[in-house]
Amino acid sequence: MQIYKVFDSKSEIIFSPKESIANYINIYHLSEVSKFNKINEFHFNFITTNPLKSIQSWYSDCKFVEASGGIVIKNKKHLWIYRNGIWDLPKGKLEYLEDFETAALREVREECGLDSSLKIEKLIYISFHTYTENSIKFIKRTHWYQMSYSGSENVLPQAEEGIEKVEWLSFKESTLKSNESFKSIKEVWNSLLI
Which of 38, 58, 78 is a domain's end point? Predict the structure, then answer.
């Protein structure tokens, strides 16, 4: 059964059928959260037989957003974008009736200026994170793929999406960028290493 982690503001909540994940507080009901209201940062392990359904229930006050993205590899280098002052991996929302793989390919091509030689190798991670925009709360589920690219190394940042730079980085540089990025992006990067 799938285990999911949600990055929610300063908190991390794992939805899992298993107990005893190190450094996480095991809870069985949403009502148990109120006992920890004075703690600044939560690390919960919510025990559930249906993790995805539990996420939908827990975040029922949020608008659910579907997205896809990827870690692109070419000649042992990895593709990163710099957007809104932070290093990130290319990703974006699904369009109407679009599947996750098609969206991942389209978004990475658009954001980085890549051609059709971009290919999906495998699904490596499914991330969840919350955010607020115009006073509306969202939870975004992103399917992340390992991708290969055989086209030109020339890249073109999608300026209208706020992307300032697109760069091919070594494994070591990529690991450093993942440590400077969002916690969810670091988790995606680390999933490539498993």
Answer: 58
